[in-house]
Specification:
Structural class: alpha+beta
Helix content: 10-25%
Largest sheet: 7 strands, mixed
Distance between the termini: 6 Å
Number of helices: 7
Order of helices and strands: EEEEEHHHEEHEHHHEEEEEE
């Protein structure tokens, strides 16, 4: 039995024949692909540290922040959820130095396929990480724009035709839409405002993503350390930022960012 303890952060990923997952636990890193098919135990030690400042907090806000950081940090700005509200291009930001690196840089509007086709945005440097984190089976670039605000404008225009959310339960059951992403992209080009078409990319490559899952559940039950401090079972696979156990229980790692846990393999 091997034990590793530390504060959870979202799993690091790399795209290979199947996605490779590494779980950061403070100063340690656990190869999660190597854990699949074997017993796994995660024990919450009753401690949460803010992922930004490190201070102890009784409750996690916005996937890992203490309340002051959730209120003031640029990483927790309203435009993270609603990019069309970003004002960094007008010189308004909680932290302009941060916004120059994250908001005032090239952004990609994309189509991703799981149980349905959704629209999303991410920094160009976060491809394919963002697609993997959402559990997409396929993804394609739609447009490249100069800043987060413009990405939000394009995304809002596309919400008339697509969802911007992933149905996490269907995604974890591996229920995948049969839509043709390339065909959908070219249909959408004709549907959006002509003023936005200048941003549409010529890159029509469809990225296919396979996940390290031995057996997908037919029913899923979400787990949380807030109700169950010890979670154990045989790890059947990983998709998105979820650990999938062989009895259909699932644990969203990103939701528990900052939680101090002991992992036993």
């Amino acid at each position: 039995m091997t034990q590793t303890a530390g504060n959870l952060l979202k799993m690091r990923t790399s795209l290979d024949d199947v996605v490779q997952y590494a779980l950061p636990l403070s100063d340690a890193t656990v190869d999660m692909n190597a854990c699949i098919g074997a017993p796994l135990k995660l024990s919450y030690e009753g401690q949460i540290n803010c992922i930004r400042c490190g201070r102890l907090t009784k409750k996690s806000f916005g996937q890992g922040f203490c309340y002051p950081c959730f209120r003031d940090a640029p990483e927790a700005s309203e435009c993270i959820i609603r990019p069309e509200l970003c004002r960094a291009h007008e010189g308004e930001s909680r932290d302009m130095a941060w916004s120059e690196k994250h908001c005032l840089t090239e952004q990609v509007v994309y189509l991703a396929k799981s149980s349905a086709v959704k629209v999303g945005i991410t920094r160009h440097s976060q491809i394919p990480t963002r697609w993997i984190d959402q559990g997409a089976s396929e993804a394609i670039e739609f447009a490249r724009v100069p800043n987060r605000y413009t990405a939000g404008v394009v995304e809002v225009a596309m919400k008339d035709f697509l969802t911007d959310r992933t149905n996490w339960q269907r995604m974890l059951k591996n229920i995948v839409s049969d839509d043709d992403l390339l065909a959908r992209k070219h249909t959408l080009i004709e549907q959006i405002d002509p003023a936005l078409r200048e941003y549409v990319t010529d890159n029509d490559d469809v990225c296919e993503i396979r996940y390290p899952v031995e057996d997908y559940p037919t029913k899923v039950k979400s787990l949380t350390f807030d109700k169950l401090p010890e979670i154990e079972g045989v790890l059947a696979g990983i998709k998105g930022q979820y650990l999938i156990f062989d009895d259909g229980r699932v644990l969203n790692i990103r939701k528990h960012s900052g939680y101090f846990i002991t992992l036993e393999t």
